[in-house]
Amino acid sequence: GDRCGKAIVAGRAxxxxxxxxxxxxxxxxxxxxxxxxxxxxxxLGKYSSDIDAYDVLALEPLGAKAFASAxxxxxxxxxxxxxxxxxAYKFTASAMKTALDNKIF
Length: 105
What we know:
Keywords: tRNA processing
Radius of gyration: 15 Å
Shape: globular
Largest sheet: 3 strands, parallel
Number of helices: 5
GO biological process, one term: tRNA processing
C-alpha cells in the first residue's frame, strides 16, 4: 500500500541514459515483491504512472499463485526470485513456458 508508493517514488532518483565515455547504457529497474496476484494488480493500477518511469519492471513473487501471475503478466520484463534459502513454491513448466512466450526472463 502506502509503503509501496513511497518506495516507488524514492527509487526514481537515478535516471537512465548513456555514459558517453564508455558507451554503457544505464537502465532503471523497479522490483515489486508480492504474495497475491490481487496485490500486484492493485499496485500496478494505483502507481502506474510512477512505474512507467522505470525502464525495467521486475516482479518478485512470494508464492505459487504470485509466480504464475508474474509469468503471465504483460507488463513485466523480469521474474526475480530470491537466491537465499528454499522457495515456498516450485517452478511449473506451464508458468515458465508462459513467461518465455511473453518474453519475460
